[in-house]
Amino acid sequence: MSAQQALLTILEQKIRDDSLVLPTLPEIALKVRQSAEDPKISLAKMADVIAQDPALAARLMKVANSAFLGRAIKSNSLLQAVTRIGLSQIKHVATALALEQLFVSKYPVVQQQLDKLWRENIQVAAIATACLKLYQAEHPAAQFNADLMTLCGLVHNIGALAVIAEAERHPEVFGHPVFLHNITEKIAPFVSVKVLQAWGFGPEFQLAAKNWRLCQGGQPPDYTDFIRLAAIARGYYKSAEAEMQLLQYYLQQQLITVPQFSKQPQFAELYQDIRGLFT
């Protein structure tokens, strides 16, 4: 049995046995999310929780002062940053910023794969959120949240992290990047849902992780559709005909206004603003 086939067999068996090791949220993200669920939490107390992780605190300051939140008066303290972001959104923003801590390996060849996966997740999150922000500008009554969209984009393929972690024990497969890509495509959707369930993420995250690869639009539109727009922009779908049909559907649903939506100047500015939060 080849190393590739052996890995596939191991992964499929562990999924059946429910024994695949799933990634866990960084500790600081768990603390922020748990604190956000406390109805008595204050802005000052939340700032104290975030201050336990200086790196996260610095990145939250960057977000609070970013073009993504507008170009108003700058925040000069962590408390001001938390106030500006808001308690209702801080758990999504903090989780998104802390996720990069998971994409780390002591093996250079594995780290290359994790870096690639993280870059792809950032790109999907930035494209999807830019599309959503443009949609919100035209449809202000639409019930969508940009911070949730960004986090949804970052975790839409989180199962791939577990697949790569298992593959790390079989370093010979990293010499076969096409195989690793194919096995991730096959298994990651199911594993992604398992991870998001374990993390306590809501149904909108789980639906996106499960269904974004399907080249068909939802009715009514949801967060998954904006991730599919990111997939179109990245040339993910193999069938040009199916992709064109999906694009026409999104034009009819007014999720986008032009077929070449990623070429619009407004899109490009939003995309760079969002992507800049993670670089």
From TrEMBL:
A matching Pfam family: HDOD
Annotated HDOD domain residues: 22-215
Organism superkingdom: Bacteria
Gene3D superfamilies listed in its UniProt record: Hypothetical protein af1432
Protein name in the entry: Putative signal transduction protein
Organismal lineage: Bacteria, Pseudomonadati, Pseudomonadota, Gammaproteobacteria, Alteromonadales
